[in-house]
Amino acid sequence: MQQLSGLDASFLYLETGNTPMHIGSLSIYDQSTAPGGRVTFKEILRFFEDRLHKARAFRQRVVRVPLSLDHPYWIEDPDFDLEFHVRHIALPKPGDWRQLCIQTARLHARPLDLRKPLWEAYVIEGLDNVVGVPEGSFALVTKVHHAAIDGVSGAAMSAAIHDLSPDAEVEGPETPWQSERLPTGLELLGKSALRSVAAPARFGQLLYRSAPSLARVVGGIASGQLRIPVRVPRTRFNGTVSAHRVFDGRPFDLNEIKAIKNSQPGTTVNDVVVSMCGGALRKYLEAKNELPEESLVAMAPMSVRPDDKRSSAGNLVTAMSLPIRSDLADPLERLLAVSEESTQAKKLAYTMGPNLAADAAEFLPSTISGLIARTYANSGLADRISPLVNTVITNIPGVNVPLYSMGSRMVATFGLGPVTHGLGLFQPVVSYNNVITISAIADRDMMPDPSFYCRCLESAYQELKAATIERPEAHKTAESKPKRKSGGRKTTRSKNNGSSAGQETRQAG
């Protein structure tokens, strides 16, 4: 039995009926590479069963302390049933990409059963008309609660069900798995009482460790060496969300993105991706006559997980607040501005200390955290208070070699993540086999046309590509042009930029 950290437990406290707090992925596999050219569902179940020991989250469930007087505990589930977690469905004909997106959104919108290990996997067949997908391919939609993993430890969990060859053999566990009995309420209350005695001392240690970092932040802001976004504009994505979701995503050539990055010294792949998202949101909101003059701001999670804990469960993350410069029409100017904003945001995050959020979360009031989350949702406060950020853009590390699961080669993979009240658009970025995919998971009322947004992404990418690697003279211009300072942002508006893509009808989810 192991207690959840405060940061892990916070994702349980934040969950409401309309805001399930799980992350996951949509991956597509070509089963022609499997031994015999096909995979049966029984073989898939056996495949998962052989790998359950490779990630703790597969068979651990949560037990809550009575009256929520302390953070919950993980135990090895005594009632674990693999067939509850791995499920088998099929798309109706014609089985195209839009149907797969709709089905993915519906699956992702459903909360996990918190009385079971916090994950599910759906094998989806019937992908008969998905462009670019080999005949006979199937999809796998995975859902794992954020309380169990973050992006990096989630990659380790994904590694548990992927191999470098179609016929790889898995090593068995060093010791047989053993379930645990459910602890009694008195046992859990006893553990909570012991922790409560030590809480004042631990809180004092937190203040002692945090004081120097907070002093550096205050001094940095006062001296102008550190900047924070002064005003975050309200957009359609900053309100109370419904229980319905939409999903879509697009692939981009990683080598071309690297070429764009290399054309502008000092920029990173992440800067290129963020500037693409900034350009896409500019086009999307401009087409709806809702583009604010100020730049939209993204929450960009950053892993602070050391290498020796990359395979461990739980969350070790911090986040930076990053203006995505949607106020700039010129794609090259936007990229350079995003690069400067990213440098400043990282400086602020590291000055505060990478472990501050995780340490502070240990002292979240477990008794009332869930009540506060439900009250916030039911009162509609998200529609009235000023937003802190407009969207989430998270870069999930991947591998640049082909992977196989269930004997089948992975053709493509897209990320999935949670939307919450006040933050109705989540954009995961995943790299795999020299391809980067950018996805949009959103509240259906806030983004009824995700395919239109993905066309905006493609348009923003093409414009940035044309302004850099397809127009070499832009390199010299960029090198000679001084970077724009964030403090005095000047907005250059293009009346027709992005509006030609048109509107689309509501996508059911």
Describe this structure in words.
Helix 4 links the parallel strand 5 and strand 6. The strands form 3 sheets. A 6-stranded mixed sheet has the order 5-6-7-2-13-12, sandwiched between helices. It has a 6-stranded mixed sheet with strand order 8-15-14-11-9-10, with helices on both faces. The protein contains 13 helices and 15 strands. It has helices at residues 6-13, 41-50, 82-85, 97-109, 151-160, 185-223, 254-263, 269-287, 331-352, 356-361, 366-379, 450-467, 473-480; strands at residues 2-3, 22-30, 60-63, 73-76, 86-90, 119-125, 138-145, 245-253, 297-303, 317-323, 391-396, 404-405, 408-416, 425-432, 435-443. The chain is an alpha+beta fold and 509 residues long.
Secondary structure layout:
Layout: E1 2-3, H1 6-13, E2 22-30, H2 41-50, E3 60-63, E4 73-76, H3 82-85, E5 86-90, H4 97-109, E6 119-125, E7 138-145, H5 151-160, H6 185-223, E8 245-253, H7 254-263, H8 269-287, E9 297-303, E10 317-323, H9 331-352, H10 356-361, H11 366-379, E11 391-396, E12 404-405, E13 408-416, E14 425-432, E15 435-443, H12 450-467, H13 473-480
Parallel strand pairs: 5-6, 9-11, 11-14
Antiparallel strand pairs: 1-4, 2-7, 2-13, 3-4, 6-7, 8-15, 9-10, 12-13, 14-15
Helix pairs in contact: 1-11, 7-8, 8-9, 8-12
